Amino acid sequence: MKSRYAVLFFLLPFIAGLIILLLNATGLQPIAGTLPPTLWQAARWLGLMGLAFFVARRGSLTLWIVFNMLVGIALGHDSPEVAMSLKVLSDAFLRLVKTIIAPLVFATLVVGIAGHSDLKQVGRMGLKALVYFEIVTTFALFIGLAAINLTEAGVGITQKIGAAADKLQAAAPQTAADIILHIFPENIAKSVAEGQVLQVVIFAIIFGIGLAMTPERHRRPMLSWTEGLSEVMFKFTNVVMFFAPLGVGGALAYTVGKMGLDPLFNAFKLLLTLYGALIAFVLLILLPVALIARIPLRRFIQAIAEPVSIAFATTSSEAALPRAMEAMESIGVPRRIVAFVMPTGYSFNLDGTTLYLSLAAVFVAQAAGVPLTFGQQLLMVFTLMLTSKGVAGVPRASLVILLATVASFNLPDWPVFVILGIDALMDMARTAVNVLGNCLASAVVARWEGEFVDNYHGPDPTAVPAELPVH
């Protein structure tokens, strides 16, 4: 308890110093001019020392990312020359991230497709689930595009920083034939080397379909190898993410040192845009779907309250999955439907993540000052929607996918690091919507199959629960 008061004692002057820093940046200086700047600078760094003590005791990667973000902001403002030399940290982290994307996307997509060869056995249910997943995630994609183009959260950064910004040219116009041909790989090794994510996706999809059609004695060894590759890449990602605090700190130090605090205001605007878009998605898409499918809303809301809260608090879909499956069974969704639809949905029905990625990708283009036509925006977010399949269990998966995709569209990476500064707050909302969407999907498919039990009052509490697969 005493350590908490000590941290609070250090943190209060830091907060005061940060507020004055923001007031200076916005031109509102009611008291900043009456006190020496060195006083507020000392307050900020004293507060950071106290915060470091608190974060070290907690040992959370998210807290370390937030702490290094604050250090980067303070260093970029107080010592721009030193801050700009730290770009090497973000560049090194970015290189590590780029090594993840091709094997991770290949392995997860192949396992997601070939590993569900039992779709032939579940027949109509599998087809209905996949059709529902793609329709709903497409709506999420369009709502995300509409929201970011309406608020234009990334617009204005380059105009404010003028010559300090990196010079970027808009992508050369492409014909429809060029776009179509660019999707298909001519050499998979070349596609991996050049970071052509969509070409890797197409190769992985066709490879997965071919593997699913292969006889079991040949399919099983290759599928086992791919599953092993997927697991190794998950662990590889965990290791790389230990460098995320340094990468984020270096990137924000460089960004603030070079461009000032303007990108941070745009990031906050993006955060508000995301929450507004997710609320709109739930009210305009998921609620009408529930009404059309005649899902009992009161019982459904009561059932999902706990798993959605778990997802929001932990930012982990997997942490909420077991409770979500139990909750859906308790309101009348048969176990066999729950056991198939929900794990599959964690690969193919990431509503919140799809919406977030569409926002973030266009934000990067807006921040870079690169105009994109609606067709180019669609191609980019379609790429993101495909590459995000199957990586729901990967920490900071959205960062990995987003960095790889914007790079393949010749966009800079620095806006992604600005986004990462508020990623924890964004992750909470999008993960909660992912869980909500998958819970509703299982109920909708059950109704579509005519197997939803309207007057069901929950499973027998004395029954031994069957083991439910987690994909």
Automatic annotation (TrEMBL):
<dbReference type="InterPro" id="IPR001991">
    <property type="entry name" value="Na-dicarboxylate_symporter"/>
</dbReference>
<dbReference type="Pfam" id="PF00375">
    <property type="entry name" value="SDF"/>
</dbReference>
<keyword id="KW-1003">Cell membrane</keyword>
<feature type="transmembrane region" description="Helical">
    <location>
        <begin position="197"/>
        <end position="215"/>
    </location>
</feature>
<keyword id="KW-0472">Membrane</keyword>
<feature type="transmembrane region" description="Helical">
    <location>
        <begin position="355"/>
        <end position="379"/>
    </location>
</feature>
<feature type="transmembrane region" description="Helical">
    <location>
        <begin position="236"/>
        <end position="254"/>
    </location>
</feature>
<feature type="transmembrane region" description="Helical">
    <location>
        <begin position="399"/>
        <end position="422"/>
    </location>
</feature>
<keyword id="KW-1133">Transmembrane helix</keyword>
<feature type="transmembrane region" description="Helical">
    <location>
        <begin position="7"/>
        <end position="26"/>
    </location>
</feature>
<feature type="transmembrane region" description="Helical">
    <location>
        <begin position="97"/>
        <end position="117"/>
    </location>
</feature>
<keyword id="KW-0813">Transport</keyword>
<feature type="transmembrane region" description="Helical">
    <location>
        <begin position="129"/>
        <end position="148"/>
    </location>
</feature>
<feature type="transmembrane region" description="Helical">
    <location>
        <begin position="61"/>
        <end position="77"/>
    </location>
</feature>
<dbReference type="InterPro" id="IPR036458">
    <property type="entry name" value="Na:dicarbo_symporter_sf"/>
</dbReference>
<dbReference type="InterPro" id="IPR018107">
    <property type="entry name" value="Na-dicarboxylate_symporter_CS"/>
</dbReference>
<feature type="transmembrane region" description="Helical">
    <location>
        <begin position="274"/>
        <end position="293"/>
    </location>
</feature>
<keyword id="KW-0769">Symport</keyword>
<protein>
    <submittedName>
        <fullName>Cation:dicarboxylase symporter family transporter</fullName>
    </submittedName>
</protein>
<feature type="transmembrane region" description="Helical">
    <location>
        <begin position="38"/>
        <end position="56"/>
    </location>
</feature>
<keyword id="KW-0812">Transmembrane</keyword>
